[in-house]
Amino acid sequence: MKITKRMKTVWAVLAIYWPVLFVLTHVPIFDVARKSGMSDKLMHVLAYMGLMMLVWWAVSPYERVDWRRWKVWLILAVVVWYGAADEWLQGYVGRSADMEDFVADLIGTLAGLVLLWALPFWPAVLVVTAVFIFCVSDLSRLDLLARYAVLNTGFQFGGYAVFTLAWIHSRGRFREAQGRAWSWLVQAVSLPLALLGFVKLAAWGLGKPILWPDCAAATAGMVLAAGASWLLFRARPMAGPVGDTAADHVAEGSSVPAGSGGVAGEEEDRVARSREYRTS
Question: What is the pTM of this model?
Fold first, then answer.
């Protein structure tokens, strides 16, 4: 199996995410977590949903979950056993093992698997990023803690930048960025702006103030991600018609369109997708 760019990226993220998650559950709870107002159980659900998705993508970056395959149950068992061991070890580092925390871990793990069953890679990234943005923005008080204003601004900027990139990729890059820049950029930020509007409307409904610095940071993240993507795609156009990838055609049982252009890393990804992609 060829090691593609997507696999390298997922492995790198997982190599950071999992150790950080382990450390955070074995040290005294940080002040920002205590004061954020977010439910401890919700944090567990989100953390293990992210872990489950990263572990799956590290093993099968081009496959969706098929419940009939033993690999699904093996990966599920690994993450569940890790969650149990994680809770048990907390009793030895000054924290307490909590059965409710373990149940929350299990819920997050199963939620991640369901997303991986229902959606391919980029749409799944899109959904989980939106969930994280909504929970941190509307179900916590992070934006109201003056002491952590920089942290909140960074989250808004980075969260919406990642969401924008996932949206662009899930749409097959819309087209090869050969048309007018403004038209392409409007499409690229359309869903991120809709998410921002929904999050702020929900915040207002929950009695939270609409903070314009947050809106500015989120918008800056969208614009930077979309602008950088447009410049990249202009410099390295992708082959194939609008919104189509090799994976799409293989999943539909049709042939991969011929074309030219692209770079070695992207070509490796397309070839790997055409060989390995599976649908449920």
Answer: 0.79
